[in-house]
Amino acid sequence: MRSIVVSERGGPEKLVLEERPNPEPRPGEILARTHAVGVNFYDTYVRSGVYDAKLPFTPGREASGVVEAVGDGVEGFAAGDRVATVDASGSYAEYFRVKADVAAHVPDDLDLDVAAAVPLQGLTAHYLATSIAPPAAGDSVIVHAGAGGVSLLLTQLLVARGVRVFTTVSTPEKAALSREAGASAVFAYEDFPERVREATGGEGVAVVYDGVGATTFDGSLKSLRVRGTLALFGGSSGQVPPFDIQRLNSGGSLSLVRPSLWHYMRTPEERAWRWEELFTALAEGSLRVRIGARFPLADAAEAHAALEGRRTTGKVILTV
């Protein structure tokens, strides 16, 4: 099978297309023929060495596809089933393996491109909206990078819960996308703390959802109301350096959390709840996924370069 392989840490050019043997499902696993692969900042962190992985490896945890075979002990899945997951083993390939208990059945009326685009960003948006200092109806929040994949979904989920969402963007085109998702106001990065204070009568926001990291961190803290929470869930502009924790006190008894999706997907019940709410929202039309770019599997390096260069909106997928 064709597979993208990383043999050494570095930039997007380290993603190399190679021929590899077709995998076989292990006990408790399913093997699926890949339809599409979700491309995420997480993949770039693993490729570059921010997150550890044993070399060489095939990147990718997110994908949709059709079951080809099941391993010993698997129940509830059979050849021909449509599946999606955020826990695949090396999804940048023509086939992927995944443990059956962390795969989800894709409804028949859901496009497999969408099923590949929604798992990581959709489940991330869901746990941020529902499990990280969840704001109440009427609260104001900031969602950074408002036209990004997670942010577009998170904005929709929060607005559906009656939350007022402010976002930050870098271009007028991205501002328009963010407003379409339901943002009440869209600000430039340069002065968003001042604009947020003006919009909230000086109070600040209940939560800042920050996937940008280094360049927005200070402004995010300045934008919080007393006892507000900064949810730092990514670092597209770089990782936040060590800081004086006393700033949380002086800023108004603030809270800082650095969450990860997999800590919010620990039980079968929690996973089923998040998948069901996502698929239901997609079916009802209250949640829309924007696929901003499609690249062939062989062009995975170009996809990473576009994502890291912040030249994309919505979700980036690889077609297989």
Describe this entry's structure for a reader.
The structure is a single chain. The chain is of the alpha/beta class and 320 residues long. The chain has 2 domains: 148 residues, Medium-chain alcohol dehydrogenases, catalytic domain (Quinone Oxidoreductase, Chain A, domain 1), CATH 3.90.180.10; 141 residues, Rossmann fold (3-Layer(aba) Sandwich). The chain is 29% helix and 26% strand. α3 crosses α9.
Question: Quick gist of this model?
Answer:
It is built from 10 helices and 15 strands.
Strand content: 25-35%
Mean pLDDT over the residues = 95
CATH architecture label of the largest domain: Alpha-Beta Complex
Broad CATH class of the largest domain:
Alpha Beta
The tally of strands reads 15
Biggest sheet overview: 7 strands, mixed
* Topology as a string of helices (H) and strands (E): EEEHEEEEHHEHEHEHEHEHEHEHE
Can you count the helices? 10
CATH topology of the largest domain: Quinone Oxidoreductase, Chain A, domain 1
Overall SS class: alpha/beta
Q: What's the CATH H-level homologous superfamily of the largest domain?
A: Medium-chain alcohol dehydrogenases, catalytic domain
Low-pLDDT stretches are none
Question: What is the overall shape?
Answer: globular
